[in-house]
Amino acid sequence: MIALQDRYLGCLIGLACGDALGAPVEFESRSALDERFPDGLRAFIGGGWLDLEPGEITDDTQMTLDVARSLVALPDGDMDDLAARFLAWRNSDPKDIGNTTRDALDRLAGGVSWQDAGAQTVESRGPVDSAGNGAIMRCAPVALRFRNDPCRLRDVSIDVARITHANPLCTWASVAVDQAIAALLHGESIPAALELASTGIANDDVREAITLASIGVRDDISSNGFVLDTLTAAFWALRHTDSFEEAVVMAVGLGGDTDTTGAVAGSLGGARYGIDAIPDRWRQQVQYREELAALAHSLLELSAAGVS
């Protein structure tokens, strides 16, 4: 039996580990990774286009930290607070900001409200270019906070996404990821969690992306920055492995947007297998592990107390 506390720790630290593993090989092709790492990439190597240190995290974990910090400070979910945290992060000159995220945060910096910034970004970028994966990479803390309140989980998942990613593909994909995490936290099997991920999803394309994760083979799975591709790839890696390490290694090995696919798979795998399943060599090296652990404990307390 995996303790709930261990699943919470696994979810957040697992997300960071998936991010740190995948970031140095971001944008490399699947075939190139197969050739470089025939047994899969299994060590934090650093480098890459961002010139990272081994174990260094990127915007995936940085924005996740802000979501978790905001939910701990204001447990019902305050998007004004979260938008201010995102802006402070933007102004700190991070190594990387996704294009859709940057567009929306630039609008926030110019005085547009959080309710309108993401929607204006969709209008400006169009229905395809606004459907990046920058919301599902950071949504896991919402599941940790609202695992016992499905309605609030859905509503807050949507709001956290639409600050920057108001495209319905992104908002509903965030709900799907958080519903899957909540199911895994409650001890559901992986097939059951993926089925529960589709509950109440009011978007056919998101539901089809979840289905593909269960029935597709590797050649069917894309892994670029499109939100539905990342959703399918992370679910597929979880569905077709039987350990945390293998899920994250398989996700990163798909190539393309490796840090985000790795981060989403890491959050899911951590919720399923718990902190002890994460290789010690990763846990000891990944950045922000102490704060991630503290935030996981706080979110567990809030979810157990039923604060709303």
Note down, in words, how this protein is organized.
The protein is mainly alpha-helical and 308 residues long. The protein has a single domain, classed as ADP-ribosylation/Crystallin J1 (ADP-ribosylglycohydrolase fold, Orthogonal Bundle), CATH 1.10.4080.10. Helices cover 65% and strands 0% of the residues. It has helices spanning 4-22, 30-36, 59-73, 79-91, 99-109, 114-129, 140-146, 150-162, 168-185, 190-197, 204-215, 227-239, 244-253, 258-273, 280-283, 289-305. α5 (99-109) packs antiparallel against α6, α7 runs parallel beside α16 and α13 packs antiparallel against α14. The model has no long low-confidence stretch (mean pLDDT 97).
Give a nutshell description of this structure.
This protein has 308 residues and is mainly alpha-helical.
Chain-wise SSE layout:
Layout: H1 4-22, H2 30-36, H3 59-73, H4 79-91, H5 99-109, H6 114-129, H7 140-146, H8 150-162, H9 168-185, H10 190-197, H11 204-215, H12 227-239, H13 244-253, H14 258-273, H15 280-283, H16 289-305
Helix pairs in contact: 1-13, 1-14, 1-16, 3-4, 3-7, 3-16, 4-5, 5-6, 7-8, 7-9, 7-16, 8-9, 9-10, 9-14, 11-12, 12-13, 12-14, 13-14
